[in-house]
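Friendly challenge for the regulars: who can give me the structure tokens for this chain first? No prize, just bragging rights.
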Amino acid sequence: MTPLAPDPSVSTMITIQTRVTVDEQGVTTLRLPPGIAPGEHEIVLVIGEAPAARQTPIMAGFPRHNVKVDLPEGFTFRREDMCDDSGRGA
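First reply, four minutes later:
Bragging rights claimed.
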């Protein structure tokens, strides 16, 4: 099978997801990756507002319990230490 050569009459699309900073005049600068040919291009700009910063952590309302657990010296929670060769609990 012979690979097809790119058809110059068909345009391709590149998707770039990034964050930008917009100044007080509404201006931002965008640097494109290498390989983008110089000249006029059509672009689509989607502006999503940044979510507001949370005032309190999500878990702040959950109750907390201090529990003393006596574990053997050298005990770990590694899968290899807790499971047998089948990957099931030992």
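The helical segments are 79-82. DSSP finds one helix and no strands in the chain. Your move, everyone else.
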